[in-house]
Design a protein that fits this description.
By secondary structure, this protein is of the alpha+beta class. The protein contains 18 helices and 6 strands. The chain has a 4-stranded antiparallel β-sheet.
Length: 408
């Protein structure tokens, strides 16, 4: 699928507002899940439709919640709300045939409802129903259940973009410790501001979501401005959902990402720099928050373009996104070295080795820098460390020879 979706996303034929992502058998049109919920809550769906609802359960807050087909938690919450709105207006067996909205008007009836609510063990699927029922019946909302899901994180992320609350956005990401440093925080905000889909974003609509069997990972598919698909992957971290990454496209693209990187690497290895750059420019629109894409840009500008300043920019983007990407530290250091900025070259070669204790190249390059600066003892120490890791490293062997010769 292309970046802005070659197949235009239809608008819901009922509300004319949300994306029409679902074909309705009853209407024979593309509609959104909100309009779908409005139809099926009234029992108008054909029985052959997977979204058909047979009946409204009497014990609304039962152990399993609502046994209905939904594509997202947002859709489920909306449906629960609609169920509550109908439920409070109907005679209920749990209240001996009385109507909840009428019961609440008397103290005796209110006590009856409170007794019912206190007897139920509210599980995750029923929390939203429970909270909305408290609000609908104007009961004490201090007893509300906390509802925090992977979609909660995604909604907070989108809301912060809409309100231009950039400083808070990094807190939604899994890897965010680096943003305590101002240089990384500023770089993140700069990158985010350059993503035109976010700059022009005025609304979002969550289409679908899912969670893995182990409950540790999730994926959320949304549509921005009724025309741009965006998919976010999330990970449960210390009981909180954090965004691992996002890309512009439908969820099926998540499996193609590694193939994209493989193809770019292959083009660079074959010295097909024009095709490599074309592919990078195309894929960065889909994967704007990819440390790998930024890393391959760095390789291109370092080794094929000779634009070392651009190489610095992209390598830094890569480590800002993924602070454990050791190869990007090495590339960044090399770019600084070619720019004759030995201070930053030393800094990032040291960080490259810190991230990868087997990186003998970083140690050898540090030896070369210290040799050029006249610190022969440091140069000797680093080159010996490099050779300890790789005794047959030809560059380090020659480097040591000239260092030892200068010392003697």
């Amino acid at each position: 699928m292309g970046f802005l979706n070659k197949n235009k996303i239809p608008v819901c034929k009922i509300c004319k507002t949300n994306p029409g992502h679902r074909f309705c058998l009853q209407k024979g049109k593309d509609i959104c899940w909100k309009c779908c919920n409005e139809i099926r809550i009234l029992g108008k769906c054909p029985t052959s439709c997977r979204f058909h609802i047979a009946d409204i359960p009497d014990d609304l807050l039962g152990k399993t919640g609502l046994a209905v087909a939904v594509d997202s938690l947002s859709e489920y919450e909306d449906l629960q709300k609609r169920f509550i709105d109908l439920w409070v207006l109907r005679n209920q067996k749990v209240f001996d045939g009385e109507i909840p909205i009428q019961l609440i008007e008397s103290e005796a009836g209110k006590d009856k409802i409170k007794k019912y609510l206190s007897s139920i063990n509210i599980n995750e699927s029923a929390k939203y129903s429970y909270n909305y029922l408290l609000k609908r019946l104007k009961l004490n909302t201090d007893n509300q259940q906390n509802v925090y899901t992977y979609e909660t994180t995604v909604k907070a992320f989108f809301e912060d973009i809409l309100t231009i609350n950039y400083d808070k956005i990094t807190s939604h990401f899994l890897k965010n410790e680096q943003y305590k440093q101002s240089e990384f925080q500023e770089n993140f905000i700069k990158r985010l501001k350059n993503i035109k889909e976010f700059k022009k974003m005025s609304n979002y609509f969550i289409v679908g979501s899912g969670i893995t069997k182990d409950g540790n990972s999730a994926i959320v598919h949304a549509i921005l401005n009724n025309k741009i698909n965006i998919t976010l992957t999330l990970v449960s971290d210390d009981s909180k959902w954090k965004i691992a990454n996002y890309y512009f496209g439908e969820p099926n693209l998540v499996n193609s990402e590694s193939e994209v990187y493989k193809n770019i690497a292959l083009l660079l290895n074959k010295n097909q720099k024009v095709k490599a750059l074309e592919m990078l420019d195309e894929q960065v629109k889909i994967f704007p928050n990819s440390a790998d894409i930024q890393y391959y840009y760095g390789i291109y500008f370092l080794n094929f373009s000779g634009n070392f300043k651009k190489a610095v920019t992209h390598y830094f983007n890569s480590i800002e996104i993924d602070p454990d990407f050791s190869e990007s530290y090495f590339g960044l250091a090399t770019a600084y070295l070619l720019l004759k900025d030995s201070k930053n070259a030393i800094k990032y070669y040291e960080l490259a080795f810190e991230k990868n204790k087997e990186d003998f190249r970083a140690l050898n390059n540090l030896a070369s820098i210290y040799f050029e600066e006249g610190d022969l003892q440091k140069a000797k120490d680093y080159v010996e460390k490099a050779l300890k890791l790789k005794p047959d490293f030809d560059l380090a062997i020659k480097n040591k020879e000239r260092i030892v010769k200068s010392i003697s």
